[in-house]
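Recall the central idea of this unit: under ordinary conditions, the amino acid sequence of a chain determines the structure it adopts. In this exercise we apply that idea directly, starting from the sequence alone.
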Amino acid sequence: MTKFEKPGARENFDYPDMAKEAGQKALSDAGISYSDVKQACVGYVYGDSTCGQRAIYHSLGMTGIPIINVNNNCSTGSTALFMARQLILGVPTFLKTEQGEREKREKEMGKKNSSTYLQSPLHL
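Accordingly, the structure predicted from this sequence is:
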């Protein structure tokens, strides 16, 4: 486990270094490689709005995947974990589609006059 401490508390050890250490340990524990990861949720509180990209892209070398940055103050960690869980489970979400897209899907599914909202798994 990566020691919980304020970024910058140790010399030359900032949050990207923490992310690298924690990420490598998590991948090892899960028995998966970088290429198995298709998206990431990263929690941050006192940092730039792109902390997740810096931590994941630059520290772990994971590029080409969407990264969701989560900043929810005291609930940041639990919110990031909840969002990651939802993505893994493929929990449906309601996406509003444009008229043309809706008609295309209705035709493919053989339906007419369905709702403007299409229930679909969340793919980021």
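Residues 15-30 form the longest helix (16 residues).
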